[in-house]
Write a structure and sequence with these properties.
Elements: E1 30-34, H1 48-58, E2 62-68, H2 72-78, H3 81-84, E3 87-90, H4 94-103, H5 108-136, E4 142-145, E5 164-169, H6 185-204, H7 207-210, E6 213-216, H8 219-223, E7 232-235, E8 259-264, H9 273-286, E9 289-294, H10 300-309, E10 316-320, H11 324-332, E11 336-339, H12 348-355, E12 360-363, H13 366-371, E13 378-380, H14 385-401, H15 403-420, H16 424-444
Parallel strand pairs: 1-2, 1-4, 2-3, 4-5, 5-6, 6-7, 8-9, 8-11, 9-10, 11-12, 12-13
Amino acid sequence: MTVQLPSPQFPQPGRGDVRTPSEPEAPKLNILLIAENVSRNLSGETILPYYYLQHFLALGHDVRIICHERVREQLAEDLDPAMFARFSFVGDHFLQRILFRIGRIFPHRVEDLVFNQLIHLITQQRIRRMARERVAQGTVDVVFEPAPIAARAVSFMYDLGAPVVIGPMSGGMDLPPAFRHMDGPLVRMAISGTRSATGLLHRLIPGKRKAAVLLVANEQTRAALPSGVSGQIREVMESAVDLGRWQQRGADPALGGKMSFIFCGRFVDWKGISYLVRAFAPLARAGGVRLDLVGDGELYGEIEELVRAEGLADSVVMHGRVPLERYMELLLDAGAFVSPSLRECGGIAMMEAMAIGVPVIAADWGGAAQYASRDCAILVPPSSKSDFVDGLTAAMRQLANSPELRRDLGHAGRRHLEREGHDWAVKARTIAGILQDVSQPHRAAPVMAE
């Protein structure tokens, strides 16, 4: 989904920032942030570096960023000149362009697992060269690489001359057992081959093995890390939501009108959109409901055809990409948010719904099961295709028929996020504290005269 964020709204100091008069203020850091893609306009992990940039600056740290030039034009449009000046860019090598064209021939999952990873490795090597030059100038206390979030992804950020912190990472997750048929033989072969090669790659490119700190979302992610890690491994959840931006709404819009459900995300198979459409069909045929599908991707046309085949054209609205402001309007008007994703490590869109008090239905698997709980969401076990579809139908019908349940789950969702600290301001302070700890020996080391 394409989003358009307004100008940065830096958070005000909260309770976590309060110091006693005798407590010394933590020294401000010079942070070099490494992320191939940084965007205020795209969903997923590309927005994570932007949130860290925004909140680290609000905490008084100096932040410089190295990323890929593919995001240069959009960042120049979205950011003021002073913010944009913090970015340095690396371009594509001709070999990357060749790999991109070849990758388009293969299934999306193979393209992503093999060709996109090769392209990423070349970019990482070129970014490493720039990072070493920046550290050599003596203006970097710590290097922070928040993306890619995949635990098995190789990092070139090693032997830079400054401590490196990578993460928070997530991943290492498979499809539920009943859905592993979704990965065909070629995809399974690519997954197996990629995972087998990963161990060797991490020995040849030891960024994660040499990092001062690796941040992982959970034990599953920890288990996916390469062997031979020499630094600390600390647990910090990967996703968060801006609770200051996503304010809790007032009245339930479904009380005075049609009950609507909403999905937002990429149109890829593991997002489970086809199961959602089939689950919604019995409610649509009974009347009085609507399903809003927001986003796009390689399966957009296939889902559009499924909607027609099921006779749901009058009840399902395919929005495609929309600006953030329009998505927020749709979400505020929704009776419930549905996330049928079967391989979701995070859950930013789900947490945005929870933040404004929209009740959530989600697969009881992966990120949804980690970032929500049964006291604030309806979690549907993906035990089989038919059971999953029937479970989604039952959950949507239950919420459509119970304003009280919608109210209770909506309020509980917001409280859950606040209680668990799933707020970007909280997360940024946590990560900044880790960067402070890691950088102390580096900052205390004497500077050798030439």
